[in-house]
Amino acid sequence: MSEHVILTEIVDRVGVIRLNRPEALNALNLAILNTVVEAAEAFQSDPNIMALVITGNDKAFAAGADIKEMADKSYIEMHQSDWFSQWTRFTDIRLPIVAAVNGFALGGGCELAMMADLIIAGPNTKFGQPEINLGVIPGMGGSQRLTRAVGKSKAMDMVLTGRMMDGEEAERAGLVARLVEDDKVFDTAMEVAQTIASKSRPVVMAAKEAVDTAFETSLTQGLLFERRAFHALFALEDQKEGMDAFSNKRRAQFQDR
Ligand code: CAA
Questions:
Q1: How many angstroms separate the CA atoms of 142 and 241, rounded?
Q2: Which of 2, 21, 25, 82 to mutate to test the pocket of ligand 1 (most atoms within 8 A of CB)?
Q3: Residues 20-61: tens digit of each pLDDT
Q4: Record's family (predicted)?
Q5: How many Cα atoms occupy the beta-carbon half-sphere of 181 within 13 Å?
Q6: What is the ipTM of this complex?
Q7: Which residues line ligand 1 (CB under 6 A)?
């Protein structure tokens, strides 16, 4: 059994979380849940960290929630513990999160990837919501986030049949932001995260919040939210710096934390 269920490191200004239960294809048990959210929150509280990357290994990003941990639970245990609700601590992270996804991303693995802000994957990545084969339905957001990502027809196909979708199909469907060779997935995710890390931290947070608002509200309310957030950014030194750098044909040095 892996001693550490996740591995973390900081590369420049990017916090990396690597799921590390290879013997169980990174099945998401409570230990992984707790350590992932604690690591993400710790990275966020460090003002020098600008973005996160979450990844697994070549064979599996994560093959789902840990079936063996759940199998014998009763309805009342699941309900009273509000099983899976702790993952909202991960989706509450305000820094951008890039998912670098190889191998199986099934059930909770697909759902965890979709909790990230964008997904980088390879042609051999296998996304799926196979819970139907276990006599349950997705419980970490699959029915909602997959439907928003790929539309009703394909989400129904995935959730009702449990079939897997490879990286190319996932990219065509809009689930994957960038499809790259399998062995370039992690490096590409790091490049994306490093690019984000070169921007202004509060502006990046505002941008994430604005895009996320599109999923939560009407167009009129969303446009108002965006415009007000845009106005508020004029309180930042980074806005002055960014616009001055453009006018003076130099590279902006963002400082606000
Ligand atoms: N939970 C617990 N253990 C898991 C697991 C999971 N989700 N997925 C894989 N494992 C374990 C296997 O039991 C096996 O352990 P042992 O060696 O102790 O037997 C080990 O990981 C390797 O797995 P396989 O031998 O099955 O590997 P494979 O290459 O033959 O098959 C696979 C790979 C097709 C992904 C297969 O492991 C599989 O179907 N896994 C389950 C996928 C699944 O149903 N996911 C949904 C889980 S429920 C969920 O996620 C609910 C939710 O909405 C959050």
A1: 41
A2: 25
A3: 999 999 999 999 999 999 999 999 999 999 999 999 999 999
A4: Belongs to the enoyl-CoA hydratase/isomerase family.
A5: 3
A6: 0.98
A7: 24-25, 27, 63-68, 104, 106-108, 111, 130-131, 134, 138-140, 142
